[in-house]
Amino acid sequence: MTKIAAPRPSLSHRTSRWFARNLIRIYAGVAFVYLFIPVAYTFAFSFNDAGKSNLVWQGFTLENWKNPCGAPQVCESVVNSLQIGVISTVLAAILGTMIAFALGRHKFKGRKTTNLLIFLPMATPEVVLGASLLAMFLNLRINPGFWTVVIAHVMFCISFVVVTVKARIASLDPRLEQAAMDLYANEKETFRYVTLPLVMPGIAGAALLAFSLSFDDFIITNFNSGIVSTFPKFVYVSAARGIPAQANVIGSAMFFIALIIVIVGQIVSRQRRKG
Amino acid sequence: MAFLHGLSKSHTGSGSGLKSRSLTPYILLAPGLIWLITFFIIPIFSLASTSTMVRPEGSQIGTYVQELRFANYIDAFLASREQYLRSFIYAALATLLALAIAYPLAYAIAFKSGKFRNILLVLVIAPFFTSFLLRTIAWTQILADSGPVVSAIKVIPFIDETFRINNTSTAVVIGLAYNFLPFMTLPLYASLERIDPRTLEASGDLYANGLTTFRKVTLPLSMPGVVAGTLLTFIPAAGDYVNAAILGNPNTKMIGNVIESRFFAVVDYPTAAALSFTLMATILILVTLYIRRSGTDELV
Amino acid sequence: MANNKVSQDTGDLKLDRVSKYYGDFCAVDDLSLVVPDGSFFALLGPSGCGKTTTLRMVAGLEEPSAGTISIGDTDITTQKPYRRNVNTVFQNYALFPHLTIFENIAFGLRRRGLKDVKSEVENALNLVEMGHLAQRKPNQLSGGQQQRIAVARAIVNRPEVLLLDEPLGALDLKLRRQMQIELKRIQTEVGITFIHVTHDQEEAMTMADTIAVMNLGKIEQMGSATELYEAPKTAFVANFLGQCNLIKGKVTNRANGKAVVSAKGLTFEVPLSRVATDNESVFVGVRPEKLRLDDNGINSIKDCVVIDRSFVGTSTQYLVKAPWDLDLVVFEQNDEGLHDLRVGDKVSLEWDAEHTFALDGAQDINAGADLDDEE
Question: Measured between alpha carbons, how far is B83 from B78 in angstroms, rounded to an integer?
Fold first, then answer.
């Protein structure tokens, strides 16, 4: 591109052209700032030397990170949340994957009803899910607690697992399974050596999603947990009298742990593809 | 992300056609569906039954008997029609705000991000991992009367000294839009990503300018994502009470707040049940109409 | 797995009155066929003709609605795919993306619990000249390499019958030519029956000993490439294999080993052995390269006009309009006798009786022509 005697556009003109061309990128950048401001704020205030009420900046300290269980009940609630999250995730992943395979790989009567049954919990506000389940427990004179929370979490996670895993199954080339059968693998071996390994990334993604939904759930948990505390419940309850900085430590740590898991997962799957 | 992919696209899953007419699918379905029926469908009916109960005179708090009193619905609605209407207005505003923020964001990730695409996608979900309550509470301090945002706005002339964001309806809508933004962004991205960039070039080649290309090609092709994203934002937003409780004031209460307080503070189960049931029914009707209107019944 | 008993019969593959319905749609219609042991057989036809369904029934991936399929004396009609000694090279190969090339090829051997997997796999890799790629993953290979691996993965099992479903469809022209020769070499080397499904007539003609041309679930005609090309029995075969000129006429006389056909006041001679019908109404057929731009042959049409010409290197192709409503295609070799005609020039056409054939006049004259032959 050697244009002869092309007049050089003025600086302001070039600036506005650059601006117009990158408008969408600038917009996206602003959107990311919007997304991350509260995260950054939470992270920053995890270093606040604030004592009980973490509202105003009092000075920098590493004390909160060194002793995340320092504030009363923080760690108990986190342990509860982790236990509920793991149990719910495992159950929802198994039940949801089974449904996804039925939908994705079998012909049967009642497919429409099944799809509707999967869709409805996702289209129902959490407050309704939580209230209705609690109403039932109360009618049955069951005291809400740890296991009622697990029941509730499995219930709302199943749909998300089904949709995620079903999408993965649908994207599988049916010829791969046919090729396995053609190569002397019976139904069980085909499932074990071909179908399952290929669907596994979808199940892993679904499990990660289910865990984060469970760990972060407040509304349904609040209805069905009775006196059992979870981390979101702890945050909500202590909001009135000031949240200890340790809660910010936990929130930030979760953020970084999850980020690392996702990034490592991406790298591993890329490596696997390369062999 | 795949679950949003799945939502915006139908998977009939006729699959290989290898397996049919056997017990296997029912065995696979049974545990999960029994779980859903026991802990979702039956509770909904239980809720319906509670909604027409009455507390016998002079009985203990929390004791109710079935009297099929459908007037509970009218009483409940009349007592909280303001919050009821407000919920849908807030949810609609939050959905529009989220759409306005998420569409260009998803567009940029799908078409302008190059090799950073995966990293940016992870960044969209990343805030999710910090407890949403912590983030919502962070907003109260960011938007606080003495906080950076309000101070900055007050610099503008003609802004009233009493101007505030925190504890207003604006804060509630901002919080709702913020909390459900990934739910809007991911389906939008999923449908935009599937558009072949060459169709956009073809549109340009056929004398459409940027805006016309967007209106006539990009937007229609991304419609499934818009439908899925708006639903995934609107539904939870309409039933939410955390944002209104943390970021609002007594005059910004939503229907979720009423249900919650009827349940826990007042121990008025029938009213809470009637309100829940009305909310669910209204949302289902709106969702059905919306899906019909937009011509994508693939969701169900 | 020791319990995976695989049938070990040898012999011809027989399809006896096989039909396949999908609801009301008939994909394969009462098809009978014998493929001799050790032959290279092609099923040729446009998309939707039932060739792939036929192949899938042989593989065991579809069950026939009626009829039986057998290899030698064993009925395999309802046998599971993993019980029959038939292997398939799938369209787009269907290599397992999560396994290495070595494990892809070893897959069938391992499922049958065979020993000596390593040397068998190595032999198969050497047969397709891909020994150096054993530890790669499929998506690191080019299309041509994946194609060879797919062949090796099937052949390593020494199947009775090898099925190839459009195996070269995804390759570019040059590579396709090369692989055609390669596949033919492999077939000769291993000596097992190959059944090759394709919509590409050139591919079928290059490789197969016998071609069956399929249309609407039935076999139109079966024979060697030369037979099908030189003496087609239906308009579909005439049009589907190469180009063809068909002229509507009436048989006026059948005697002395030849039939005389009259059309628009002209008469054409056809050897009786090349007349495929007893009807009076016929199509007289002749291939474009058999036509000469001259007027003293036994069969000729005078007063034609050139309406289009295109130069394609080895020949010049003319579109010529007969004195009535009929366009004829003429290929003229680019050598000394070249006429070099222009659009609008008057010409006469002639051809030999022994290059002429006659088909039943009651069929669609355009059957098999201009089919979109992409799957």
Answer: 10
Classify residue C289: in a domain, yes or no: yes
User: Is the domain of A129 the same as that of A231?
Assistant: yes
Six token digits for residue A155: 């219930």
State whether residue A95 sits within 8 Å of chain C by CB.
no
Q: How far is A101 from chain B (nearest CA, A)?
A: 7
Per-residue DSSP letter, B40: I
Subunits in contact with chain C (3 or more CB pairs closer than 8 Å): A
Asked whether the beta carbons of residue A181 and residue C60 sit closer than 8 angstroms, the reply is: yes
Taking only the tens place, the pLDDT of each residue in C169-213 is: 878 888 888 888 888 888 988 889 999 999 988 889 989 999 999
Measured between CA atoms, the residue of chain B closest to residue A81 is B131
- Best interface-test mutation with B: which of A54, A126, A128 has the largest number of B CBs within 10 A? A128
Residue B276, amino acid: S
Whether A125 is covered by a domain: the verdict is yes
Cα dihedral sign, A172-A175-A179-A181: positive
Domain that holds residue A23: 18-65
Confidence of residue A6 (pLDDT cuts 50, 70, 90): low
Same domain, yes or no: A47 and A155: no
The pair of three-digit structure tokens given for residue B47, joined into one six-digit string: 């809720």
B161 to chain A nearest CA, in Å?
A: 22
Task: Give the closest of A25, A155, A251 to B131, CB-based.
Answer: A251
Q: Which residues contact B220 (CB under 8 A, 6 or more apart)?
A: none
Q: Where along chain B do its domains lie?
A: 73-299
A9 close to C (CB below 8 A): no
Give B42's pLDDT tier (boundaries 50, 70, 90): very high
Residues C187 and C305 in one domain: no
Burial of A10 by CB count in 10 Å (0-12 exposed, 13-18 middle, 19+ buried)? exposed
Query: What is the per-residue pLDDT across B95-149, written as a single tens digit (0 to 9) for each?
Result: 999 999 999 999 999 888 877 888 888 888 888 788 889 999 888 888 888 878 8
Q: How many folded domains does chain C comprise?
A: 2
pLDDT band at C375 (very low <50, low <70, confident <90, very high): very low
Residues C176 and C201 in one domain: yes
Q: How many domains does chain A have?
A: 2
Residue C95 lies in a domain: yes
Domain that holds residue C317: 243-360
Identify which of C59, C60, C94 has the shortest CB distance to residue A173: C94
Question: Is C180 in contact with C186 (CB distance < 8 Å)?
Answer: no
Chain A: residue nearest B48 by CA?
Answer: A132
Residue C76's identity, in one-letter code, is I
Residue where a domain terminates, one of C227, C253, C268:
C227
Instruction: Please say whether the beta carbons of C305 and C347 come within 8 A.
Output: yes
Instruction: Output the six-digit token pair for A251.
Output: 């929130």
Q: Chain A: give the shortest CA distance to residue B98, in Å.
A: 10
Q: Record the tokens describing residue B238, joined without a space.
A: 């309409």
A9 in a structural domain: no
Query: Cβ contact (<8 Å) for A181 and C80?
Result: yes
Q: Are residues C105 and C159 in the same domain?
A: yes
Q: Would you tell me how many other CB atoms lie within 10 Å of the CB of residue B116?
A: 11
Is the ipTM value over 0.90, yes or no? Answer: no
Tokens of A15: 């600036």
Q: Is the pLDDT of residue B152 over 50?
A: yes
Are C168 and C261 part of one and the same domain?
no
Same domain, A98 and A231: yes
What CATH number does the domain containing A118 carry? 1.10.3720.10
The span from the CA of B233 to the CA of B290, in Å, is 14
Q: Is C83 left (phi over 0), alpha (psi -120 to 50) or beta?
A: alpha
- CATH homologous superfamily for B73-299? MetI-like (1.10.3720.10)
- Smallest Cβ–Cβ distance between C100 and the set A197, A198, A275 belongs to A275
Is the minimum CB–CB distance between C61 and chain A shorter than 8 Å? yes
- Clarify whether residues C87 and C168 are in a common domain: yes
**Contact assignment for B134 to A42 by CB distance below 8 Å:** yes
